[in-house]
Amino acid sequence: MSKSLIAVLPGDGIGPEIISAALSVLLKVRPDLAHETALVGGAAIDATGTPYPPETQALLRRSVAVLFGAVGVPKYDGKPVRPEQALLAIRKEFDLFANVRPVAVFAGLEGASSLRPELITGLDFVVLRELTSGLYFGEPKHTIFEQGVETAIDTLVYRAPEIERIARCGFELARRRRGRLTSVDKQNVLESGRLWRRIVNEVAREFPDVQLDHLLVDNAAMQLVKDPRRFDVLLTENTFGDILSDEAAMLTGSIGNLPSASLGATQNGATFGMYEPISGSAPDIAGRGIANPIAAILSAALLCRYSLDDEASAQRIEAAVAAALAGGARTADIAMPGEPVLTTDGFTARVLEKVASAG
Ligand code: IPM
Ligand code: MG
């Protein structure tokens, strides 16, 4: 069998810095992997005029997984061709409907959270976000003049099968964890919310061993800061998931800590997935070598888990990050006053040492 090919798309902002960190850790645990790098986002617009060039598309089709940095450059804000279009195009093209965002607080980082340590110690849950429908993709989606008034229209649409397949993922995920699923909707106002709740309840009949509850999204946003440890798997639609996962990230001390997996169908013999930090391109700190690489490194762990079906390597990477943190390694965003601060490369070197000593 040919080697599994990993597509590496560093993208914009801090993307190249943190992806080089993640790739070095990934290759340390899996030196057998083949990898190829391609352009995406603003970097691709600069070089080719389009955020998702044909060469990148072709690479993705030959791959089993994508290690993705970030897209977004301020100079393209509001322009017709934007870096983010690449991300949405990839999600749609590969039908990456299941977006897994694990939220866990590492021992020793409790003090970096925006909440008091007693509320978040041991926090460990997953946001499961539907990623290929809803407001992001619904049609019509345009700005028109209606009776002379400039009017912007986005369409919130959910089809029963789209809800059903993500709900099933949610129940399966909960079954492998602590057996609790919280579905989040806005059924008191939205048609799509009512369909969401009904379908989730229907799927629930297949999973009598999973304890299901429902929260309205405003209440869910409140519960995340009031009692976040009540969550095991938080299942929600695209836009709510975007917002709630940023909120959840801050509970862990930094948005730089959270990885994600966007999963779709089988391609080239594996579960095709795109693995990326949820942080975004962080242009304010890009190019300075100070970004926190944890989210990117943990994304490489998720790549091992889901696309390579290699749980041992996933755990090896996760344990190495935990060990580096336990040994006091900190980037600027997670250091407490007075704690020594490492650069991106300095932190990554500590993780690589831990991988080596465990291997
Ligand atoms: C995310 C990001 C993206 C999203 C942006 C960059 C389009 O915020 O993955 O959460 O809104 O989905
Ligand atoms: Mg987001």
Textual characterization of the structure:
- It is a single chain.
- This protein is of the alpha/beta class and 359 residues long.
- The protein folds into 2 domains: 1-104 and 254-359, Isopropylmalate Dehydrogenase (3-Layer(aba) Sandwich); 124-251, Isopropylmalate Dehydrogenase, CATH 3.40.718.
- It is built from 12 helices and 12 strands.
- The chain has helices at residues 15-29, 42-48, 54-62, 84-93, 117-120, 160-176, 191-204, 217-226, 238-251, 294-306, 311-326, 344-358; strands at residues 5-11, 34-37, 65-70, 98-104, 124-130, 142-146, 149-153, 180-185, 211-216, 233-236, 261-267, 270-275.
- The protein has a 10-stranded mixed sheet with strand order 2-1-3-12-11-4-5-10-8-9, with helices on both faces.
- Strand 1, helix 1 and strand 2 (34-37) form a beta-alpha-beta unit.
- Helix 1 (15-29) packs parallel to helix 12 and helix 6 packs across helix 7.
- The chain is globular, with a radius of gyration of 20 Å.
- The two termini are 25 Å apart.
- The model has no long low-confidence stretch (mean pLDDT 95).
Global morphology: globular
- Poorly predicted regions are none
Mean pLDDT: 95
CATH fold annotation of the largest domain: Isopropylmalate Dehydrogenase
CATH homologous superfamily grouping of the largest domain: Isopropylmalate Dehydrogenase
Strand residue percentage? 15-25%
CATH architecture classification of the largest domain: 3-Layer(aba) Sandwich
Total helices: the number is 12
Give the % helix: 40-55%
For the largest beta-sheet, the strand count, sense and barrel status come to: 10 strands, mixed
What is the first-to-last residue Cα distance? 25 Å
Task: Return the string of H and E elements.
Answer: EHEHHEHEHEEEHEHEHEHEEHHH
